[in-house]
Amino acid sequence: MSGLRHAILGLLARQPYTGYQIAQLMKRPVGYFWQARHSQIYPELESMSHDDLVAATVINGPGPRPTKEYRLTTAGRTALLDWLGSPVSPLSAGRDDFELRIWSAWLLPPDQVAAMISERRAMVLERQSEYRAILASFPTRMSHGDPRSGEWMTLQMGLGYEEHRLAWCDRMLLTLAAG
């Protein structure tokens, strides 16, 4: 089963959504780590309907075409729980354009590399600020079983990643400045 299916099942475990709402939620990364486009979501929802993982109900909508609201089926919930209970995948390198650029950055003058890292550093600071603002909306204690507890834990993980990225940027900028 694809990661997109798991992301959609996880969203629908929280509440029913239309395809449009799912696409809007995935514009900003779900759980601060997963994104998808309309062109990916609608075919996946259709396939998931065919596989009886989700069911759609036609509701009134703003457009000329029928609006479908999707909900998790029993089979969908079982598939999500089976996946959640399966062994965790081993760590693997992802596809990060910035990391790929850094890998070949030795070809650039140091000031250009420093500018690239400084630009990334500014992005990291902005994301940290966003995460901290979102974190402020959570209660100080989260109880397990609350759907937001998973969001809180994922947000904490994302904040940790950004703290690591910021420290890396600072170390590399110091290294470049030292010559």
Please, could you describe this protein's structure?
This protein has 179 residues and is mostly helical. Helix content is 62%, strand content 8%. Strands 1-3-2 form a three-stranded antiparallel sheet. Strand 2 and strand 3 form a beta hairpin.
What is this structure, in a nutshell?
This protein is mostly helical and about 180 residues long. Helix content is about 60%, strand content about 10%. It has helices at about 5-15, 20-25, 40-50, 75-85, 95-105, 110-135, 145-179, and strands spanning about 15-20, 55-60, 65-70.
Main attributes of the structure:
3-stranded antiparallel β-sheet; 3 strands; mainly alpha; single chain; Arc Repressor Mutant, subunit A; 179 residues
Helices and strands in order, then pairings?
Layout (H helix, E strand, L loop, with lengths): L2 H12 L2 E2 H9 L10 H13 L3 E6 L7 E6 L1 H12 L11 H7 L6 H26 L11 H32 L1
Helix pairs in contact: 1-4, 2-3, 6-7
Distance between the termini: 48 Å
Mean model confidence by pLDDT: 88
How many extended strands? 3
Beta-strand content estimate: 5-15%
Question: How many structural domains can be distinguished in the coordinates?
Answer: 2
Main sheet: strands, sense, barrel:
3 strands, antiparallel
